[in-house]
Design a protein that fits this description.
One of its GO terms (biological process) is error-free translesion synthesis. It is found in: Mitochondrion matrix; Nucleus. Interacts with PCNA and POLD2. Interacts with SSBP1. Interacts with PRIMPOL; leading to enhance DNA polymerase activity of PRIMPOL. Interacts with POLH. Interacts with POLD1; leading to stimulate DNA polymerase activity of POLD1. Helices cover 9% and strands 44% of the residues. The protein has 378 residues and is mainly β. Among the domains are: 74 residues, no CATH class; 132 residues, Immunoglobulin-like (Sandwich), CATH 2.60.40. Strands 1, 2, 3, 4, 5, 6, 7, 10, 11, 14, 15, 16 and 20 form a 13-stranded mixed β-sheet that branches. A hairpin with a 5-residue loop joins strand 4 and strand 5.
Length: 378
């Protein structure tokens, strides 16, 4: 995996590093989370104490090697990171680069806001609390392809899916190695490497300019791609809620419209992250969804796990992220539900999934948005 997975409670130390403190990567042939470490060239003693919290990077058959990846930079408490900023993901540990920021509305149900600028509950949703939207920054990023295999068990961040103009009206396409990252999950660093992130789109979208900070600047291809596909890449709302130390974050995206049997079918994708904020090991066993359509239908979906998995959330591996899709016969609706988790003693508890809106857009499916690489999911 990338250099390290740093729990948020430890990030304050990173901000104290000067630009002379290098970020080294511990390559572990077994890439075991509880035995890997990161190391600052001047702070070896600190890293030795913290090593149990950090993930190793790529596999190397010859064993363990320390390699310098770059230099830590101070995290931004105000403002946004610019296009070309290199970073480590604070939870999943992969290396990446910022393509562009997305200002979004965060609806945090763990906060009790005032009444203005609220969204009401969908019919039948749990609770009656209204939540105020707070401005927050997320980033569209490229993931280093060397790290994708090592995060696949904890995160499906390897691709963003789209509907494409195709003879098969069901076709979904995926651009590998794209993710959406919250501002607080960015651990910035810099590197003298002219291609520090391995991804087929890196050199198409960015060029190296050592006189700039960050040292990578956008090419015209990136600007054109962003302008063309803005409405399909954009995230506008993020929903978050915590139940018994398990935080669920949901990001919905409108994908477009398909015609089926002389009627329109509206498609959305949604990305969900579950994060264990406590010390107790738990395992996700079941999901329970309610899907309300503007046409008046209410669908209930129950099943084992999510995307064929029953992930374990622990102190060492606290988060799991996945994405899925939903379609409606009407242009808008709502979704909400719960996950059932199991404790080590065999008892169960339910974790709420915050209600979120499914809102369509007037534009139809985009044209010529795939710069490559892409893969058909059907």
């Amino acid at each position: 995996m990338a250099a390290c997975v740093l729990r948020q409670g430890l990030f304050c130390r990173v901000g104290k590093y000067s630009k002379k403190h290098t970020l080294n990567v511990h390559f572990n042939s077994r890439h075991q989370a509880n035995t890997s470490r990161w190391q600052c060239s001047r702070c070896a003693a600190v890293s030795a104490v913290q090593q149990r919290r950090f993930m190793s990077s790529r596999m190397r058959p010859e064993g363990k090697v320390l390699e310098t990846v770059g230099v830590f930079e101070t995290q931004k408490q105000h403002g946004s990171y610019e296009t070309g900023q290199l970073f480590l993901h604070s939870v999943f540990g992969y290396r990446g680069v910022v393509l562009f920021p997305w200002p979004t509305r965060l609806y945090d149900r763990d906060v009790s806001p005032a009444a203005p600028e609220t969204k009401s509950e969908p019919p039948g949703a749990h609770g009656s609390k209204e939540v105020k939207g707070k401005t927050h920054t997320y980033y569209q990023v490229l993931i280093d392809t060397r790290d994708c295999p090592h995060i696949s068990q904890r995160s499906q961040t390897e691709a963003v899916t789209f509907l494409a103009n195709h003879e098969d009206s069901r076709a979904l396409y995926a651009i590998p190695g794209l993710d959406y990252v919250s501002h607080e999950d960015i651990l910035p660093y810099n590197s003298t490497d002219q291609v520090p992130v391995q991804h087929e789109l890196f050199e198409r979208f960015l060029m190296h300019n050592p006189s700039k900070a960050p040292r990578f600047v956008p090419r015209d291809a990136l600007r054109a791609w962003q302008d063309t596909n803005h409405r399909w890449l954009e995230l506008s709302d993020v929903h978050r809620e915590t139940t018994e130390n398990i935080r669920v974050t949901v990001i919905p995206f409108h994908m477009g419209i398909r015609e089926a049997q002389n009627s329109n079918v509206y498609w959305w994708r949604y990305c969900i992250r579950l994060e264990n904020l406590g010390n107790e090991v738990v395992q996700l066993r079941e999901r329970h969804w309610r899907i309300f359509s503007l046409s008046g239908t209410l669908e209930t979906v129950r099943g084992r796990g999510v995307v064929g998995r029953e992930p374990v959330l622990s102190k060492d591996q606290p988060a799991f992220q996945y994405s899925s899709h939903v379609s409606l016969q009407s242009p808008s609706g709502h979704m909400w539900g719960s996950y059932r988790l199991e404790r080590p003693n065999g008892t169960f508890f339910d974790v709420r999934i915050p209600p979120f809106s499914l809102e369509s857009k007037k534009d139809d499916t985009p044209n010529s948005f795939l710069p490559g690489p892409f893969t058909s999911l059907l």
